[in-house]
Amino acid sequence: MSDSVIRQAISTDISDLAAIDHSYSTDHVWQMMLGGEAGEVHVSFREVRLPRAMRVDYPRNPQRLMDEWTKRSTVLIAEADDGPAGYVAVIPATAPGAQWVCDLAVALRHRRQGLGTRLLGAAMEWARSRGFVRLFVEMQSKNYPGIMLARKLGFVFSGYSDHYYPDEDISLFFSTELG
Fold first, then answer.
1. C-alpha to C-alpha distance for 113 and 71, rounded to whole angstroms
2. What's the domain range around 102?
3. Total number of domains in the chain
């Protein structure tokens, strides 16, 4: 995948990006454990291996990109010889000096070749070069490949939100300092 080019998306790219299969397969999840006593709450996540791999649908409709892409801080596209291979979309974060990766998708035929790493790295460099000091990334607790990618690139767990996505799924948040 080293021959792909990462560049800023333009309007004619968006329908191709929305058409990428955003689903993924996983054989692990992060399971949330909630407990505690009066006056305290304990929340923890633990990695759980599933009895068999499962296909997980993307938590949002990828077609929304068609209407919302101009509201993104940036949409970076990985372009291969056979067309768009993937993209990363970044939005402003509520935290000062931060940006937020809201979408990262790689076409099936280009997965497991390091393209997700390159796209997230490009988003980090994009934010760093514009003076941002922190980058957040969100993902479903079922998105074990995404969790491993974020951790590999130095992102640390920084929170969660229950019922975050339209399908009521949990979102995990990871962040990194861009220093």
1. 29
2. 5-177
3. 1
* Cα 24 to Cα 77: distance, rounded to the nearest angstrom: 19
- Please check whether residue 151 is in contact with residue 176, taking contact to mean a CB–CB distance below 8 angstroms: no
Residue 18 dihedral angles phi and psi, to the nearest 5°: -65, -25
CATH code for the domain of 80: 3.40.630.30
**pTM tops 0.85:** yes
Residue 17: in which H helix or E strand, if any? helix 14-18
Contact between 25 and 54 under an 8 Å Cβ cutoff? The reply is yes
pLDDT in tens, the chain (179 residues): 457 899 999 999 999 999 999 999 999 999 999 998 888 999 999 999 999 999 999 998 888 888 889 999 999 999 998 889 999 999 999 999 999 999 999 999 999 999 999 999 999 999 999 999 999 999 999 999 999 999 999 999 999 999 999 989 999 999 999 98
